[in-house]
Structures are given as C-alpha cells and as structure tokens.
Specification:
Helix content: under 10%
Oligomer: single chain
Distance between the termini: 28 Å
Strand order of the largest sheet: 3-4-13-9-10
Shape: elongated
Largest sheet: 5 strands, antiparallel
Amino acid sequence: KTSDSFNLTDTVGQNAPGQYDGSTFILKSGFQYIHDSLLEFSFSIDDLSIDLGTLIPESPVTDTNIITITSPVGRGYQIYAHQNHSLKNMSGYTIPDTTCDSSACSESVEGLWTQTTTYGFGLNAVGLNDTNPTGIGTSQYFSTTDHFRQFANYELSEPAQVIMSETVSVKDRSAQITYKANISPLQSSGNYQNTITFTAVPNY
C-alpha cells in the first residue's frame, strides 16, 4: 500500500456505518471520519521572559514573542490567554489593564490604542504565514497591529479569552504576541510583574 509517491490507508466498514448521537456521546462508525496525519498536537512559545524595561510616563513600550501550534486532526484549535493578576510591584501598586483609546476595549473586545496618553497594559496578536504578518487565525480578534485587548484577569475571576483560532488542521501555525505598557506621570516606581498563561485546545 505504499510507494515512493503514495501511502494508501483504508478502513473496514460495519453493518451500520454512520454517525450516531446520544445524550453523552457521538459514535462515528465504519469510515475514517478523521484522517490521521501522524503528526502530534503541539504548542510552543519561543520566549518565556517578557521584559518591558524601565517604563517612562507617556512613552509606550512593547515586547513580543512567537507562539506556534500544530493541530493535525479534527476541526482546528483555540488558543486562550489570561494573566494571574495585573502588573504589580512589591508594594502592591498595579499598572491597570488598558482600556484603549476612548475606553473602547476589554478582555473580550478589541480597541485601537495609539495615543501616548492612554495608559495600561494589554496584548495584540497577529497570525503569521512564515514570517509575514497576515492575521491568519487572529484577524477576528485583532483587526490590526494597533488594536489591543486586556488580558483576562484570574484575580478578578475573568475567564480566559480566545485570542487565536481556526477550524481546519494546521501545521506549525504561528502568531506574534505583542505586549504593550504605558504609564502615567503619577504611576508609582518599582519592578512590576505578573504571569501570562496561554492554553491551546484542539477541536474534535
């Protein structure tokens, strides 16, 4: 069933092939509903340490990393993001989540953020084709690279939010995540930190 140019798979049918749905199960019987590409589901992040450096009031700074996912079978994937709490220093002062320009964004709604008098911390994601920013997988969540959202905040019981998804199988699909912070002249000095978590979920 194999040669230099092909690899044939087959299946044996049953007396009653087809899909059968119950209240707690779905049975797909007799045919290959999902072809196994022999790839494993995987997810990686190329840089686990984001450093925004010394923040200067009304001088926005950014840092980036790349996430990469392979979802070989089924109906694609979803990638969720959340933070454990807002950026916080040892004294308990926080850098608030951005509300974007005109108070237009939240953890579930994007907003344009270009003004230097808009303060806070947020994220943008742009899907990549090789290294070219195309928005594949992310354009439904972030219209442009100037549109941001807040990170969902577990300390405030906000559920993690999807920032990237597709409904097809993918191999080594990547996105660039941009972290942006801007502070006001009244922001307390100190070393601010938090933990960002990304969760990749396959769709079957």
